[in-house]
Design goal:
alpha/beta, five-stranded mixed sheet
């Protein structure tokens, strides 16, 4: 997979520069820095797809959390300060919980669309001024826990402070931990200083963030689905001509298919890299291990329904009726 990664990253600069001349520039805001490998690979893949599908007529200029903090990005995109947002549902849980629900929905992008779940989520985001371009599942399984110390005889993380956005909180509490909210860019220092004892994060990315230097264990099994949300200011989308709209929708669809196909191999590569850097696998007790998938799923749905009671309950029933749960 290394040649895929290098190929995608090598195109980023070229795509960003392709806005010169006759190309129409679109301003994209990301919740993550380029140091977060998993999201950056997906972002640059989307940028390239837009350029390729439009034959150079559309180009994307990227900004990251240095421009707007990651938990405050929906409003400036909905207001038109930026055109496109790349984020995760947990990063705007104060606005809506529906995006988080996608992390407990079957990750197959074709089934997400054919079942109607994609359209339901899209229509919801339109109420918040955003038009969905992609709900991109980063592989079949998306999350893991990284720890400074191995899981001990208790078989849990009782009393340990674990970084995580709100989607992880119910799971962390179920396993005895104490959730701490921190942006990804602050986790290295927090681990190094012992401010947190571990961190929940996608299965691709900790190595590039160098967390292996300050935390020596990764927990298995992994759990849940990481869904990257790519959405556009709805008024800006409506102002584009039909061909331009079609380009962005096609690029979003292709992105979903690409990252779903590629990221399991990237996860395996990341795990091999963690081992090579001296990290070791650690596991919960069998009793606690059996709780992980259910605790994560129930926890996420609880958050979704707390924030969006009527829509959240309806979406959960729809997912269950379509047999699209994890």
């Amino acid at each position: 997979m290394k040649h895929i990664i290098l190929g995608v990253l090598a195109t980023a600069a070229a795509v960003a520069l392709s806005g010169a001349g006759h190309a129409k520039d679109l301003r994209m805001l990301s919740s993550w820095s380029p140091a977060n490998k998993g999201t950056y690979i997906a972002e640059t893949a989307f940028m390239k797809l837009v350029s390729d599908v439009s034959k150079g007529k559309l180009a994307i200029k990227r900004s990251g959390p240095e421009a707007v903090p990651p938990f405050e990005q929906v409003q400036p995109v909905a207001a038109g300060v930026f055109d496109i947002l790349v984020t995760h549902g947990a990063y705007h849980a104060g606005t809506t919980g529906i995006g988080m629900a996608l992390d407990v929905v079957n990750s197959d992008p074709v089934k997400r669309r054919s079942s109607g779940i994609w359209d339901i989520a899209d229509k919801h985001y339109q109420k918040h001024g955003l038009k969905a371009l992609a709900f991109a599942p980063l592989g079949k399984v998306g999350y893991q826990m990284i720890l400074r110390d191995p899981i001990g005889p208790s078989g849990d993380i009782k009393g340990k402070k674990i970084r995580g956005t709100v989607t992880y909180h119910p799971l962390v509490k179920t396993l005895g931990g104490v959730p701490v909210v921190l942006p990804a860019g602050q986790v290295y220092s927090a681990l190094e200083k012992g401010v947190v004892d571990g961190a929940c994060f996608p299965t691709v990315g900790p190595l590039d963030l160098k967390w292996n230097e300050v935390a020596k264990y990764y927990v298995r099994p992994a759990f849940g689905v990481t869904t990257l949300i790519v959405a556009m200011n709805h008024n800006k989308f409506k102002a584009l001509n039909k061909d331009e709209q079609a380009v962005l929708l096609e690029a979003g669809k292709k992105l979903e298919e690409k990252v779903y196909a590629d990221f399991d191999a990237l996860t395996a590569e990341e795990e091999a890299g963690m081992k090579a850097k001296g990290m070791k696998e650690t596991r919960f007790s069998k009793v606690n291990e059996a709780k992980i998938a259910k605790a994560f799923e129930e926890g996420v749905w609880g958050l979704v329904i707390t924030k969006n009671k009527v829509e959240g309950q309806a979406l959960r029933k729809y997912v269950e009726d379509k047999k699209m749960g994890l």
